[in-house]
Specification:
This protein has about 325 residues and is α/β, with parallel strands linked by helices. It folds into two domains: about 170 residues, NAD(P)-binding Rossmann-like Domain (Rossmann fold); about 140 residues, Orthogonal Bundle (N-(1-d-carboxylethyl)-l-norvaline Dehydrogenase, domain 2), CATH 1.10.1040. The chain has an eight-stranded mixed β-sheet with strand order 3-2-1-4-5-6-7-8, sandwiched between helices. The longest helix is centred in the middle third of the chain and has 23 residues.
Amino acid sequence: MTLRVGLLGGGSWGTTVAALVARNAPTTIWARDAATVDEINNSHSNEKYLPGAKLPDRLRATTDLAEAVRDVDVLIMGIPSQGFRSVLEQVKPHLRAWVPVISLTKGLELSTRMRMTQIIQEILPGHPVGVLTGPNLAREIMAGQAAASVIAMEDDIIVRELQALFRSGLFRVYTNHDVVGCELGGVLKNIIAIAVGMGDGQGAGDNTRSALITRGLAEITRLGVALGGEAETFSGLAGMGDMIATCTSAQSRNRHVGVELGKGRDMDAIIEEMVMVAEGVKSAPAVMALAEEYGVEMPIATDVFQVVTKARSPKQAFRGLLRVLAGAESEPG
């Protein structure tokens, strides 16, 4: 049976995933902007988010949310975290029962500290939920470069069907049962990428960058395990893999924010000029609230939080990180 797919969100990653899936199944992408929808349908491109990329001719786009979801067999959510809930609530009256819902979003809802799959379960009870995550830079994938991702669901049968749906060309997809760990890996690494960017913006070297990534991975693993994830997940594609890509690539939005902060620019000005959302900035307060609630020490994330909330300057935060006393490598700090 050919699955019909609806994907909500016309940003870079949502459009990229829609392009991949459209090679395997009839796919409709929903976007709010009528100009973007017209461009996808008529020019088979999305120049605002993926300049120069050619989209499959068979990929359809619409501004009508009901049209995008009412007949689908799989729903994919590429909506930024702070708008995720409201879009799902609009989807609810139109979505058939038991349709799997897969999140692409690497953020937490600020008001509730909930993961996106938790929001799906709350608004759409009974629907199988999952997450697609990993070191996936949209422009490289659209350029045909090799990449790997993880589809995480608790249901072994459904996840194998979806593995085949997402797999395309040099885009390899692995499966995982640890939804919590995979989802948190994608969320938490954004905070560390801002820290790495702040160092890069102040002229830090490769040794400093490597230390921040390694100690940052230890931090997110501690919190991820405390929240119910499996430690092994954070050494895989959803953890270490995504961390490396986000902390080192010039295409990373969160690293970009950190670099600009490190250069002394104002947080509001940086966000104002960005076309896409840097989820690490949005999620930092929720991450720190969870760390406090679960008693997990996260010195790097704490410094990032203080910078994005303007409690400290990037220079103060970075010097503080370098002065932290080191104990055993297994210990926080």
